Each structure stands twice: as C-alpha cells, then as structure tokens.
C-alpha cells in the first residue's frame, strides 16, 4: 500500500534556496521540499549559477507574503 501511495500520492514541489553571507553574497544553492536548516538561507524564484559569489538581486527573492516565510528569513531580507 505504501508503494502505491508513494507512486501516486501528492508530493510537495521542490523549492529553490540560496545561502547568503553577512554581506548578502550568494555562497550556496539548494533545492528541497522543506526550508533548509541554519541561518542565511533565502528562497528564490530559480537558481542562477552567475549569482555565486555575487550580491543576490532583489528581484530574485520570493515574496514573503506568498510563502509564509519565517522571521529568520525576513531578517535577512
């Protein structure tokens, strides 16, 4: 029965996140169904390799109203 549920059940979509350092530069990327643990992770619309080592563009962030983002993420906005 679990096999049928895993094959045909609904799954949460993968979401895109970037890890930002203290200056707001992108240090890592991650795609997962749940928000990553730890500080500095911000949800973005998509992942673009050219952001690595650069300041994250403001338009890249997902709106906190649309995702119900935690206060930790809002503090990094």
Q: Any overview of this molecule?
A:
The chain is α+β, with helices and mostly antiparallel strands. The chain has one domain. It has helices at residues 2-8, 64-67, 71-76; strands spanning 15-20, 26-32, 41-44. It is elongated.
Question: What's the helix and strand layout?
Answer:
Layout: H1 2-8, E1 15-20, E2 26-32, E3 41-44, H2 64-67, H3 71-76
Antiparallel strand pairs: 1-2, 1-3
Entry summary:
This protein is α+β, with helices and mostly antiparallel strands and 77 residues long.
For the structure shown, list the relevant keywords.
77 residues; three-stranded antiparallel beta sheet; 22% strand; alpha+beta
Mean pLDDT: 82
Shape: elongated
Quaternary assembly: single chain
Return Rg in Å.
15 Å
Q: Termini distance?
A: 44 Å
